Amino acid sequence: MLPFLFTAGLLTAGITNAGTGRALPANAPHGYTPQEDDCPSDAPTIRLASSLSDEETSWLRSRRQATLDPMRDLLGRLNIRGLDTDQYINNHRNNVSNLPNIGIAVSGGGYRAMLNGAGVLEAFDSRTPNSTSAGQLGGLLQSTTYLAGLSGGSWLVGSIYTNNYTSVNDILAQDTSDDDSGDIWQLENSIFEGPDSDGIQLFDSVGYYATLVSDTDNKDGAGFNVTITDYWGRALSFQLVNATDGGPEYTWSSIAEQGWFSDGSAPMPLLVADGRAPGQKIVSDNSTVYTFTPFEFGSNDPTVYGFAPMQYVGTDFFAGETSTDQCVTGFDNVGFVMGTSSSLFNSFLTTINNAQTAGLFSSALQDALTAVLRTIGEDDEDIADYPNPFFGWRNESNPNSGDQQLTLVDGGEDLQNIPFHPLIQPLRHVDVIFAVDSSADTNASWPVDGSAPGWPSGAAIIATYERSLSDIGNGTDFASVPDVDTFFNLGLNKRPTFFGCDASNLSSPSPLIVYMPNAPYVYNSNVSTFDLDYNDTERNAIVLNGYNMATQGNGSIDDQWPTCVGCAILSRSLDRTGTDVPSVCRDCFDQYCWDGTTDNSKPDPYQPNMALEAVDVTSGARRWAGSVVGAVGCAVLSGLMVM
Ligand SMILES: *[C@@H]1O[C@H](CO)[C@@H](O)[C@H](O)[C@H]1NC(C)=O
Ligand SMILES: *[C@@H]1O[C@H](CO)[C@@H](O)[C@H](O)[C@H]1NC(C)=O
Ligand SMILES: *[C@@H]1O[C@H](CO)[C@@H](O)[C@H](O)[C@H]1NC(C)=O
Ligand SMILES: *[C@@H]1O[C@H](CO)[C@@H](O)[C@H](O)[C@H]1NC(C)=O
Ligand SMILES: *[C@@H]1O[C@H](CO)[C@@H](O)[C@H](O)[C@H]1NC(C)=O
Ligand SMILES: *[C@@H]1O[C@H](CO)[C@@H](O)[C@H](O)[C@H]1NC(C)=O
Ligand SMILES: *[C@@H]1O[C@H](CO)[C@@H](O)[C@H](O)[C@H]1NC(C)=O
Ligand SMILES: *[C@@H]1O[C@H](CO)[C@@H](O)[C@H](O)[C@H]1NC(C)=O
Ligand SMILES: *[C@@H]1O[C@H](CO)[C@@H](O)[C@H](O)[C@H]1NC(C)=O
Ligand SMILES: *[C@@H]1O[C@H](CO)[C@@H](O)[C@H](O)[C@H]1NC(C)=O
Ligand SMILES: *[C@@H]1O[C@H](CO)[C@@H](O)[C@H](O)[C@H]1NC(C)=O
Ligand SMILES: *[C@@H]1O[C@H](CO)[C@@H](O)[C@H](O)[C@H]1NC(C)=O
What we know:
Elements: H1 6-12, E1 35-38, E2 47-48, H2 54-77, H3 85-92, E3 102-106, H4 110-124, E4 144-150, H5 152-162, H6 168-174, H7 205-221, H8 228-240, H9 259-262, E5 268-275, E6 288-292, E7 296-299, E8 306-309, E9 317-318, E10 321-322, E11 326-329, H10 334-341, H11 355-358, H12 363-376, E12 384-387, E13 405-410, E14 432-437, H13 459-469, H14 484-489, E15 497-499, E16 512-517, H15 536-551, H16 561-576, H17 583-592, H18 635-638
Parallel strand pairs: 3-4, 3-14, 4-5, 14-16
Antiparallel strand pairs: 1-11, 2-8, 5-6, 5-13, 6-7, 7-8, 9-10, 12-13, 15-16
One 2-acetamido-2-deoxy-beta-D-glucopyranose binds near residues 302 and 397.
C-alpha cells in the first residue's frame, strides 16, 4: 500500500500564498517593549470564571454558524450510510447547540510535536490541495470551534495565527521557491544560529544575538522582570513569525482584531501554560493551568478561577481592579506567549557554556543569560515572569494571591502534555476532541528493556484523566482511560482510539476523545526532543507522517476510518437530539472505542513497525551534526525527556 505522497505534490503544486501582512503589529513603534499609558475610561478588570466572557460568547455565535456549511460538506463526504447528514445539519441549523462542537488539541514535544501536529492540521484543512477528495478529512479544521496548543504544539498554533491564519500547506510550499524572503519554519538553522540573512530577517548571527539582547534589555529597562523565556520567545519568533526581526511588536491579543478571527472564519486558538512558583514542583493534581485566548488570560481552576483581558496583561491589578490609572499594553508579545507555553525548552539557550555551542553565541548574549541565571537560579530557569493580574484576587483559594509576580512555566510540566484543559471546561460544551499526542514517553529501558525511544505511552491523557478525579478538576469530567501497561498491551498508544464513547458512562457531559498517538506511518517521527535542526526533507517527512496518521494512510489502512471520524464527530450530537446511531457508526465504535478492557501485565518491548511504505529522506548531510544532546545535563532539562 502506498502512502499518500504528499511531499511530491507539495514540491510541484503551484500554490498561491496567502498574501502579505501578518497578524497585527499592535505594539508598533515600540517593538518588544511594553507601554504604559492612561487606562481607558472603561478600565480593565478581572472577572470570575463562572461563565464564558461576553467576547467569547458573541464570537461563538459567528463561529458556530460558520462551521455549519463546512461540517455539512465534510460529513457528506465521510459517507455515513444510514444518516442523511445534510438533512441532519439543516434540521438543526436553527439551534446550533444541538450540532457537533469540535476541538483539536496539539500536544507538546518540541519540533517533533510541532511538525507531527502540522501534518494533522494539514490533513484537516480544506485549503490543502486534494484534502477534500475521497478518504480525506479536509474541512475538519473549518468545522472546528477551538484549536489548542501546548509547548511545541503552541509553536504550530501560534505560528499559524500570527501569520494571517495561513495554512501548513502554504508555509511548506513557500520555501520551495528560490527567494527565501517570507519563509518560516526554516529549521535547518537551529535556534543557536539564527536565520539566514537573506530570509525574512535582516540579520546575520551577530545581529540576531544583538537583537535578542537589546529587545530584552529594553523590556527590563521599562521596569519589567525579564527571564530566559524573554530571550527564548524572541529567538523562537525568528522561526515562527513572518515579519522583520520575528515581529517584536506583534501581540497575541491582536488576533482578536483580525477580520478572519472576529468574523468567525477561524477556530479560536488557545495556548496553555502552568503556574509554578519559584522552588515549587507541580503535578497534574496541584497545578493551576492557565489559558491564553485572544481575548483573555486566566484559569478555570478553582484556585484562581478568574480571567484578565489579554490586551492588558502586564498591568498591575489588585483584588480584580487596576491598582493605578496606568495600564500596560504590548506585554503579550506573540513570541513571549509561545515561549511561556514552551518555557522548558528555553534551557536550550543555557547550554551556551558548553564547548559545542559556546562559539556560536555572542558574548553579549552569554553575559545576559548568565546574569539572569544569577538572579533566578538554575532550577527556575524555565520560568516566565508576569506582573500578577491575580494579586489580591480570591485569597481563600489562589495560592498566588499574595504575590505581585506570577511565574508561569511550560504547559506540559504537570505531565498533562496534551492541552485538554481549556477544551474540557463544561462552559465550552465541546463534544469531541481530536487529541494529537507527540509525547516522547518510551525510552530504551521503558516500559521494558529493548523498547524504541521517543513514542507516546498514554501518560499524558492519563494525567488529565486522573486530574479530573481530584478536587482541582472542578467539574471537568473526563473519559475513563486505562493504565499505561494496558495502553501498550492493547496497542492504544499506537493507533487512533476513541475514549468516552458511551456518554451515559460519564457523570456529566464531557467530550468524546479521539486519541491520535504519534506512531511510524511513513517516517520514524520519534525524533529526539534534543534535535534542534532539521533539513527540509526530514521536516516534511515528519509532517507527512502526521498527515498519514490523521488519514490512516489516506484510508488505505482502514477504508472505514473517514466514516468513523464522522461518527466520532456526530456521536454526542446524535445523543442530544435522540437520533438513532446508524449501524455503520456502531461498527466504528466497536472497532475504535476503548471498551473498558484492561491488561496490566508487563508489556513486550515496544518496537512499532512502519505502517506504510517509508519515505526516503536521504542524500546530503545535516548541516549541524553535533547536536547538544550530550552536553545537556541540568535538572530542568531532564524534564524534556518526556516532552
Ligand atoms: C491531487 O490529485 C490529482 C489527481 O489525483 C493529482 O494529479 C495531483 O498531483 C494531486 N495533488 C497533490 C498536491 O497531491
Ligand atoms: C510572509 O510574508 C511575505 C510578505 O509579507 C509573503 O509574501 C509570504 O507569503 C509570507 N510567508 C508565509 C509562509 O506565509
Ligand atoms: C490574509 O489571508 C487572506 C486569505 O488568504 C488574504 O486574502 C489576505 O490578503 C491576507 N491578508 C493580508 C493582510 O495579508
Ligand atoms: C436547543 O436545543 C437544546 C437541546 O439540545 C434545548 O435545550 C434548547 O432549549 C434549544 N434552544 C432553542 C432556542 O430552541
Ligand atoms: C505537588 O505535588 C507534588 C507531588 O506530590 C509535590 O512534590 C509538590 O510539592 C506539590 N506542589 C504543590 C505546589 O503543592
Ligand atoms: C469550580 O470552582 C468554583 C470556584 O471554587 C466554584 O464556584 C464552582 O462551583 C466550581 N464548579 C464546579 C462544577 O465544581
Ligand atoms: C520582579 O521579581 C521580584 C522577585 O524576584 C518581585 O519581588 C517583583 O515584584 C517583580 N517585579 C515585577 C515588576 O513583577
Ligand atoms: C488578600 O491578600 C492581599 C495580599 O496578601 C491582602 O492585601 C488583602 O487585604 C487580602 N484581601 C482580603 C479580602 O482578605
Ligand atoms: C525512561 O523512562 C522512565 C519512565 O518515564 C523513566 O523513569 C526513566 O528515568 C527513563 N530512563 C532514561 C534512561 O531516560
Ligand atoms: C465506565 O466508567 C467506569 C467508572 O468510571 C470506568 O471504570 C470504566 O472504565 C468506564 N468504561 C469505559 C468503557 O470507559
Ligand atoms: C524510533 O523508533 C524506531 C522504531 O519504531 C527505532 O528503530 C528508532 O531507533 C527510533 N529512533 C530514535 C531517534 O530513537
Ligand atoms: C536530512 O536529514 C535526514 C535525517 O537526519 C538525513 O538522513 C538526510 O540525509 C538529510 N537529507 C538531506 C537531503 O540532507
